[in-house]
Amino acid sequence: MNPSGEVGCFQMDDLSSPPGDWYLLCSQRDCAMKLDILTRLIVAAVILMGGQSAVSGEGSPTRIIVPAPKDARFCHLSWPKVIKADDGSIVVAYIAGRKHVNGDGCPAVSVSNDGGNSFTSPHVLKTFDSTMRYQHAANLAIGKADDGAIVLMAMAFTDDLRNHIYGWRSEDHGKTWKSTDTSEIGDSKTGSVFGHLFQVPAEGLAVCGHYRKPRGEGLWIAYSKDNGKSWGPTKTITTRKYFEPTFIFSGGRLVGLVRENSAHAYHQFVSDDRGASWQFRPSVIQGNENAVHPSPFLVADPTQPDRLYALQTERIGDNWINLWQAERDTLQWQENRVLTSSPDVEDFGYPWMTHLAGNDWFMVHYAGEKDGPNSIYGGVITIAPRDKGSDLNTPNPATRD
Fold this sequence. Notes:
Number of strands: 25
Strand order of the largest sheet: 10-9-8-7-11-12-13-14
Order of helices and strands: EHEEEEEEEEEEEEEEEEEEEEEEEE
Largest sheet: 8 strands, mixed
Strand content: 35-45%
CATH architecture: 6 Propeller
Number of helices: 1
Radius of gyration: 20 Å
CATH topology: Neuraminidase
């Protein structure tokens, strides 16, 4: 971890070489002051709570793993994704910018080689700002190719005028990155990318996203036949106005969770014929109906693949992240428990997790200010194995202390 909060920025499209020893050091006083105040508040809250963050259930609480840099240009870290590399490293990708909306956001990564105890400082893969054709990067997608490479994708846009999708591959567990060919899904052909990159038999590596203007509305899926080095054209899932699709392929089924613009529930798409047709169910996951539910997360448990987990964010009050679960065949979602909360912050959410081993997962999210410093939080959570014969017919309600 770089204690100074500096940001390593390697400004090349082809990142086949690691960054040098130079950094963007233009620290700005206002962001540093905000970061100091925010850090003091967090420390005080932790002390008052006896060294624990506001977490219910099993496993370790989340904590700051990538602190907001002091440089105002990159002090707002948000929208993280996380994946465990084949060598055991934990790779976190996120957007680093000035603020939540149109804040010159840039895709960046940090890597842990010690099980998530410490992470490298932000490594910016590509810069965007208001002087460029694409001014701001936002949503991300991450996954692993069959050859073990980590594949990362990011959308960039200029309002509703135009957008593009960028991609990178890392063949050394997140240390260096090389650009990929996204011409078939870029240059305003789609809009936003989001969620997992995942394998679909006979199709290849899949990625999903939602359309944006000028292309239109709806959800799309595209495939790569060469482990994410290049991508084919999109196939439309729906022309209805949904956002941030998180899809997986499990047991012969494509299953996805999405949100609508008002984001007060997660809705579900399922295909049993590899995308030839889709079944839709509204509001399969909903907490407080008055809370904003951004950024659905969905995954199958590799130790019991017919068990699916979802993470649901509620931006209201103490700001909750909740664990839900369902059986793959019935998809009857039941709320399990609260994993963490972040009271008294302006900006919060976008949880993601990756399987470590056994019942342990590494979860990340972000919290902080909408316009100013924002940090990436993370930690190990433990999800107990299913009791023998359990079919989730009896829900286990979440606990909000």
